[in-house]
Design a protein that fits this description.
The structure holds three protein chains of three kinds. By secondary structure, chain A is mainly alpha-helical. In chain A, 73% of the residues lie in helices and 3% in strands. Chain B folds into two domains: 33 residues; 204 residues, MetI-like (MetI-like fold), CATH 1.10.3720.10. The chains are: A mainly alpha, B mainly alpha, C mainly alpha.
Chain lengths: 285, 272, 90
């Protein structure tokens, strides 16, 4: 039903999100074209901060690191989640309980996820850290870059694979069993069943899973902040943490604002690409 | 179904067991550390007996329990605001077409997807200007950045699965829109509202960056207290672990009630 | 409002964005858009094409700033032309 009066229903949301998102964003754009010493002493510098940020190797490094992290966790979590979902029993009273148990990591506060993995992986007091060191393998995520990355990846996989599995499971359970029977009669192998029966019907849930994991990993802040603090060196400093250090730690308002705008635009582009392909996909079906 | 089940025995079972162990071990370690004294954790004494001293410390030390209280108060305010403003908006999106509806809906999504860090710079100035800095209300409003879009999306998903014939019947019966919405429509989607409350609660409860930036000493939330537990003698790992266990409890306590809709909630209402 | 650190150029920029949105709304009220298929890979409305044009010009400016020290107005000019092409044939 077309009725523009529906706008009145949306107005409260608009006002409140404007206060917490639009006004800050406008202010960030204002900051980004000035050199700010304090509110009354500021200098218009045009687009210099953008030019500087775009050519700053530290920014490009953080961006690459971020992209690498997102691609890696997607590459692990999506296939692993699908495998776990396919291995789950489809019926019986246990299913509900298993699903809830699997969801537990998703319900843990993000900083506590960091704390848990810190307690778990530390070489002195951690179960994992002391075990691996006991095997004779040097492992210390606070000192070694590779170990820090491995720990971070393990933590993120631990934290979010269940989300992919739960989504895939709900997609799988909507496939009529007649499809499977037909495939079995044709003598399809397990891979063929997956490729030609399951995958096409999982397309929409998997797109949501990829969208959520991509965007959430792109804004990751709390877990690495607690676990590694961005170190050793800058090896686990991702975009949000880099930005926060710049803004709060060093109080470089102008460059940090330009960084924010660029970061936001990248997120906007990714979000739009996914949203458009999701809606186009839904319309085609 | 036999065919599916047959395909799932064998390798799949092993994968599930391994995955289960992988999920359980870190949590087990957290719980077990929370029941040990810090001396026994860092290994200065051989005493490894169970103790509840860490929990006792949290319940008696005002720094810890006010942290919990502060967190709960802004989470509660945030949840009430988010769900209240999101209900009419979700109804509008689900039942009407209006100018810019699709763009508005997408814009809400971008706020959920955008890193809070990009909005962070002027937050101190903004909330100081309106006199809210270091209050639970400031954090609650800041968290609306992602909880309001989240609520609108989830509620829209639930509302769209209610057939429109319900609306039309109410109109034929002569009910006004407000009466229909409050007395007939809301009760039909109450499980959706429950799920929305749960997710607002979750996402506000777990957020650290905005909560830390907007609070000083008066409204310091538990997540911030946890990142600053370094005392003169180093970090008290036992108390930290106990605090971690306690922050998980609220989520666990309610997850059972929303288990049927958990997936729908995480997928922003986009799957059935 | 002092804390928002307004400058004349950014104020003009946001006024321009706001009026563009207003124009789009008025245009929509006068003659509702039709979803159509142009050279873009999906069917779009007028508002979609406008958004794509804005996003594309933002990235055009970023690309220009990243590689060139020349005047930004060249990027703006290119964006305007690209935006027109998108709105007309996209």
């Amino acid at each position: 039903m077309h009725d523009n009066r529906a706008w009145f229903g949306v107005l409260p949301v608009l006002l409140i999100v404007s206060f917490s998102a639009v006004i800050p964003l406008i202010t960030v754009v204002n900051y980004s074209v000035q050199d700010i010493f304090d509110v009354d002493t500021r200098l218009f510098v045009g687009l210099d901060w953008y030019r500087e940020t775009l050519r700053d190797p530290r920014f490009l490094d953080a961006l690459l690191r971020q992209a690498g992290f997102s691609i890696l966790i997607l590459g692990i979590e999506i296939p692993l989640g699908i495998l776990v979902a396919r291995a789950l029993p489809t019926e019986g009273r246990r299913v509900g309980l298993i699903l809830v148990l699997m969801a537990i990591p998703l319900l843990i506060p993000w900083n506590v996820v960091g704390t848990i993995w810190q307690l778990f992986a530390r070489p002195d007091i951690g179960l994992l850290g002391s075990f691996v060191n006991g095997l004779g393998v040097e492992f210390n995520f606070t000192a070694n870059r590779l170990d820090a990355w491995i720990t971070l990846l393990m933590m993120d996989v631990w934290h979010w694979t269940s989300l992919v599995a739960l989504l895939t499971f709900s997609g799988l359970s909507s496939i009529p069993s007649a499809y499977y029977q037909a495939a079995t009669m044709d003598g399809a192998s397990r891979w063929q069943v997956f490729r030609h029966v399951e995958l096409p019907r999982l397309k929409s849930v998997l797109m949501i899973a990829v969208l959520l994991r991509l965007m959430d990993s792109f804004m990751i802040y709390t877990e690495p902040f607690v676990l590694t603090g961005g170190g050793p060196g800058n090896s686990t400093t991702f975009l949000s943490q880099y930005l926060t250090t710049m803004a709060v730690g060093q109080f470089d308002l102008g460059p940090a604002a330009a960084f924010s705008v660029l970061y936001f635009l990248v997120v906007l582009l990714l979000c739009w690409l996914f949203y458009t392909s999701m809606t186009t996909n839904a319309e085609e079906q | 179904m036999k065919a599916i089940q047959a395909a799932k025995t064998g390798g799949g079972q092993w994968l599930l067991y391994l995955y289960g162990i992988y999920l359980a071990l870190p949590v087990y370690w957290l719980v077990s550390l929370s029941l040990r004294s810090n001396q026994s954790i860092v290994g200065t004494t051989g005493d490894a007996g169970l103790t509840f001293a860490n929990y006792q410390e949290i319940f008696t030390n005002p720094v810890w329990y006010t942290g919990f209280a502060n967190s709960l108060s802004y989470v509660a305010i945030n949840t009430v605001i988010s769900v209240t403003v999101a209900l009419p908006a979700a109804y509008a999106f689900s039942r009407y077409r209006f100018i810019g509806d699709k763009h508005l809906f997408f814009w809400l999504l971008t706020n959920r997807m955008a890193p809070p860090a990009v909005f962070l710079l002027p937050f101190f100035q903004l909330y100081s200007a309106v006199g809210l800095f270091d209050t639970p209300l400031a954090v609650a409003l800041a968290h609306c950045l992602f909880t309001v879009p989240l609520s609108v999306w989830i509620l829209e998903g639930f509302m769209s699965s209610v057939p429109r014939s319900l609306d039309e019947m109410a109109r034929i019966d002569g009910h006004s829109l407000p009466y229909f919405f409050l007395r007939i429509f809301l009760p039909t989607i109450k499980s959706g509202i429950g799920v929305t409350v749960f997710f607002c609660f979750m996402f506000s409860w777990v957020e650290l960056l905005l909560a830390r930036t907007l609070t000083g000493s008066a409204a310091k939330p538990i997540v911030v207290v946890m990142t600053r537990t370094v005392s003169a003698s180093g970090i008290d790992w036992g108390v930290l672990a106990a605090a971690g266990v306690l922050t998980i409890v609220p989520g666990l306590a309610v997850v059972w009630f929303v288990r049927k809709h958990l997936v729908k909630g995480f997928a922003l209402g986009r799957v059935s | 409002m002092n804390w928002m650190a307004w400058t004349l150029p950014t104020a003009l920029f946001f006024v321009a964005v706001a009026s563009a949105l207003l124009v789009m709304i008025v245009w929509e009220l006068r003659s509702p858009t039709l979803t159509r298929r142009g050279f873009l890979p999906m069917a779009t409305t007028r508002g979609d094409r406008f958004f794509i044009a804005l996003l594309a010009s933002a990235f055009a400016h970023i690309a220009w700033l990243a590689v060139s020290d020349g005047p930004v107005l060249i990027a703006s000019g290119l964006s305007l032309m690209g935006g027109f092409v998108l709105m007309r044939w996209g």
